Amino acid sequence: MNSKKIKSWAWVHKWSSLVCTVFMLLLCITGLPLIFHHEIGHLLGTEVEAPKMPAGTPRASLDRVLEVAQARHPDRVVQFVSQPEDDDGLWFVTLTPTPAPTDDFKSVAVDARTGAVLAQPKFDEGFMYVMFKLHVDLFAGLPGKLFLGFMGLLLLVAIVSGVVLYAPFMRKLEFGTVRREKRPRLKWLDLHNLLGIVTLVWALVVGATGMINTWADLVIKYWQYDQLSALLAPYKGQPTVPQAERGSVQRSLDVAMARAPGMKVSFIAFPGTAFSSPHHNTVFLRGNEPFTARLLQPVLVDAKTTAVTAAPKLPWYLTALLVSQPLHFGDYGGMPMQILWALLDIATIIVLGSGLYLWLKKGKAASTAPSTAAVVAA
Hints:
The chain is of the alpha+beta class.
């Protein structure tokens, strides 16, 4: 590679890195506790678990579960009801002022066997909530998500340009060399390059999946426009199904499960909410394996008649989104993968911090160079 091309790539690497570094540092620091969110929840006492009961204990009707949760917040509507992947003895009911998407929500945890309220967890406050919001959207909603997505794109540009520059740089040194006997800036440059190449694949994966995750709201809206609109043609012109005219939610769940035997329920979205239509209870089912548990199968059940009207396969772009979300936080391989993700996250913090240090030191050296030259000339 000639010197002109090296200078061009160096310019790209420098400015793409500088623009995104502070935000990437923020994402790495806030992402570290999120890797262990379940474990931290247990330590803080914020995790809700269903009490142990004998296998085969009868389950309460889902209609009863919703009634119990609604009684705690009669001025709100049920938007979603979900079940944790690792605890089928628990329902989380999410209630909001209106069916429209909002950050103003209340959660009620209900025992799936007895129908008793176990807790009313506050997911919208506390240390982990602050970490999550800073990591996801900087408390700025969709604009914040898209901004962080752009920072993620700049990170990918910085990684690719850094790899291009790494090859000619390492012709002069053996792999892994850190020149500790030289001045501090050279030592940090070597460490920056070494950790950067070691974390290369991880940084690409986490950067790319993080960028994809910032598009989630737009991807879901496109799915509704692209796929659901055709399925809803028979309902054209009909208003949202009133609460009083809706059939049994338990019946909706039963027919959806019968449509896809062997799958488990992930969550149910009710008419008029972001993940459903104005006319359906949309039941999202998941598989039983570590990978298939992340992939969802929507089943649209008419809210009035409780008859299944469609069970469309998710398009590739939604599948990519669902796969990228757990991969971003290392949720596939249990504790060993979480620990690996945390170590790589810490290494990336060092890479980003050392890059910022190298730029500041270089700028300081450049700013002092003219005065030094003037003294020598004098």
